[in-house]
Amino acid sequence: MAVEAKVTWQEGMRFEGTASSGHTVILDSSAEHGGQNAGFRPMELLLVGMAGCTAMDVISILRKKRQKVTGFEVRVRGERAEEHPRIYTDIHVEYVVRGEDISPAAVERAIQLSEEKYCSASAMLGKAARITSSYRIEPA
Amino acid sequence: MAVEAKVTWQEGMRFEGTASSGHTVILDSSAEHGGQNAGFRPMELLLVGMAGCTAMDVISILRKKRQKVTGFEVRVRGERAEEHPRIYTDIHVEYVVRGEDISPAAVERAIQLSEEKYCSASAMLGKAARITSSYRIEPA
Asked: How many Cβ pairs within 8 Å bridge chains A and B?
């Protein structure tokens, strides 16, 4: 299966990004790098994509495990190398699950399945960066 | 330097994504996977980010080389593995530069600098996928 994406130059460092699903997003650099911060930095989108990828896995698995999730966030923090090409060398993923009687074992298993089996984005970025994770369960 | 991103569950498979720059984007899966296509697939954002990353490099370099660019697009196509975790195994990047008297050598050099030196996203995804590229120059 193929996935397509495209960015079209607008002006300065601003681009409109689109992909196969038909949605659009604006990308821009900071003023420091000649842009106007009218949109996401490209490297931010890698982390948003990775967060979304594992988040969709985990929420699906928690529902299959009949967990009563009322709120769910995935926070990702990437540390970049000092030298070009300035990849992320370390990425930490924090899962925050809110709900009633959420089972820590279910959360751990869901995260493990995403990390080890399902999440395509983590599998790719994990070839270049060291990925670590943690989770927190909060009351509904 | 650290970059942060976060996705917050809205409902079904829909998440709102944000990052350090303060922008937001909606992520969702297809109906086939329990979503409503209200936003990008997470794996699309990796390709949009990669396209934007190399596009910003190339447009910056072409301007430094005083090329009169009037239009510019970067199209990316990723082929996914059949088996989980379904990474991109092959990514092709096509650069389309429009303008007056655009020098093919300048375009080639700009692409090479992005691929080999500057583009953080290509450097990361290139650890997992085979990346190829091509370019086309069109009249203004």
From this structure: 271
